[in-house]
Design goal:
Elements (H helix, E strand, L loop, with lengths): L3 E7 L2 E5 L19 E6 H8 L14 H7 L8 E2 L2 H4 L4 H16 L1 H23 L8 E4 L2 H17 L8 E5 L4 H14 L2 E5 L8 H15 L6 E7 L11 H10 L4 E5 L11 H4 L3 E5 L11 E5 L21 H5 L8 H4 L1 H8 L5 H24 L13 E5 L9 H15 L1 E2 L2 E3 L12 E6 L6 H16 L10
Length: 481
């Protein structure tokens, strides 16, 4: 056949149409979940690709700025949302698919649960497996949140202490800047089971990744003192507050050299924020939320378990009918609930692929923009960034003027509320306790995020708010509890 074919996507399946054909010729009456306009391919191109690998559609045009703003028109337009890191975002096209899944369940739940749910979750797991370069789909479990994934791994470790596999006093290592909920989970599971907890301390601001590596080695030496063993290392890929990209690959290598039994990377901000490659990182366990930087609605995350046979030893903390069938199956059914967030991963990927270079392009775009905005704010306030640009991903810590008088975590929370309620700026504030001998230390840092919907005006609004506070002679003592 001569001529050129047009490829449309209907429910993510390719339709190969002859010149001048349209989808209506096929009498497709139902609405597609998502339809992507793509370019044309010649007969030679089609024949070549079909015999070797699936065709990756090329867009005739990538998403425009106006289309991006339309996708996020449901955001409060009066608020500068520069805190994507806390709660993420979801475009309108994915929300539409989410609602369609919810209605499909409500329309006929018996059919949905028995014939569609598990197939849909398997499709999401397969996509995640490919995105993170895992070996097997059974290494991937979909869970509701990274906090749940932490509970799964720590529960497994706690059982090892309780059953005598690990001796009392054996250690677990974690970063001092680990997420607060993770620290409490370690206390709830590990400390109560008799494990010793060693924290990795390093200074903030951070000047180089070598500071983190050196501090990590010291913590491992402490954990191994007097012949003790380190059973688990919990390492953040990107710390939350303060936000820093941790050299996880190097830390995992050190753990292997030092005989640490297992390594768990807590990457709540990982996928969509920085490069995630399981073969490169080499951890035993890795978790990341999909609702923070991967455009899924809240809440959905994955837990990777290296070598799928190990997943048989892990269990979901909510015990249901699938107990004992392996974590991927257990996690896919923990009783009647709304699983629609688990099912929109393909649609989120379709949204991502509307951008030039897909997820890699988005990450570079966000990284470059957030560093630029961070430098602009630091220059305006005469402060500094919390780490070098190469240790930032899509979030940056920016020092606030010392005259704001941030002297406690409570002050940082009150200032965050004040910025939101008075100025319409959503941004988290971090309190940094000053060290002895510091002259006019910067005790407050703002963690700014950049996602595709953000504009320069958002950061200028934040700058204007802080400038106004300085002009007014404001300090945190003016804020009531």
């Amino acid at each position: 056949m001569g001529g050129r074919w047009t490829i449309y996507y209907y429910h993510r399946f390719p339709l190969f149409l002859l010149p001048n054909q349209t989808p209506q010729i096929l009498n497709l009456k139902s609405e597609p979940l998502f339809q992507i306009p793509v370019a044309c391919y010649s007969d030679h191109c089609l024949n070549h690709n079909l015999s070797h690998s699936p065709i990756k559609p090329k867009f005739s045009s990538f998403i425009t700025d106006s289309q991006i703003q339309s996708e996020f028109a449901h955001h409060d337009q009066g608020v500068a949302r520069i805190n994507n890191g806390s709660f993420g975002c979801c475009p309108a096209s994915v929300i539409t698919v989410l609602q369609q899944w919810q209605l499909k369940y409500l329309r006929q739940p018996d059919h949905f649960n028995y014939n569609e749910l598990q197939k849909g979750i398997l499709k999401s797991r397969t996509i995640i497996k490919d995105l993170i370069n895992a070996d097997h789909v059974d290494e991937i479990s979909v869970v509701d949140n990274a906090t749940t994934a932490v509970a799964i791994v720590l529960q497994h470790t706690a059982w090892a202490f309780a059953e005598g596999i690990y001796e009392k006093g054996n250690a677990i290592v974690m970063l001092h800047y680990a997420y607060g909920a993770v620290k409490k989970s370690i206390k709830a599971y590990i400390s109560r089971a008799g494990g010793d907890v060693i924290e990795v301390h390093f200074k903030f601001p951070v000047n180089s990744k070598d500071e983190v590596i050196s501090a990590f080695r010291k913590a491992l030496a402490k954990g191994k003192a007097n012949g003790k063993r380190i059973r688990l290392a919990v390492i953040d890929h990107i710390t939350s507050m303060p936000s820093i990209v941790i050299p996880v690959k190097k830390l995992v290598e050190i753990c292997r050299e030092e005989g640490v039994d297992q390594v768990f990377v807590d990457a709540a901000h990982g996928i969509g924020c920085t490069v995630v490659d399981m073969k490169e990182i080499g951890a035993d366990f890795y978790t990341s939320n999909l609702h923070k930087w991967f455009f899924c609605p809240p809440s959905v995350a994955f837990l990777y378990c290296r070598k799928w046979s190990k997943c048989l030893d892990l269990h979901h903390p909510v015990v249901s009918h699938e107990y004992g069938n392996g974590l991927p199956i257990e996690s896919a059914w923990v009783g009647t609930r709304d699983y629609s967030t688990y099912l929109v991963v393909p649609s989120a990927l379709e949204f991502i692929n509307r951008f030039e270079n897909g997820m890699q392009g988005i990450m570079k775009r966000n990284h470059d923009a957030v560093v630029e905005m961070g430098k602009m704010l630091a220059k305006a306030w005469g402060t500094n960034l919390g780490c070098p640009p190469e240790m930032c991903a899509t979030m940056v810590m920016v020092g606030l003027p010392a005259c704001l008088g941030i002297s406690s975590e409570n002050d940082s929370l009150k200032l965050r509320t004040h910025l939101r309620e008075r100025f319409g700026v959503e941004v988290p504030i971090y309190y940094r306790e000053p060290e002895d001998g510091e002259d006019e230390p910067i005790t407050g840092y703002a963690r700014i995020s950049h996602q595709v919907y953000n504009k320069v005006d958002d950061y200028q609004k934040f700058r204007g708010a802080v400038d106004q506070l300085v002009v007014d002679g404001f300090t945190c003592t003016h804020l009531l509890d």
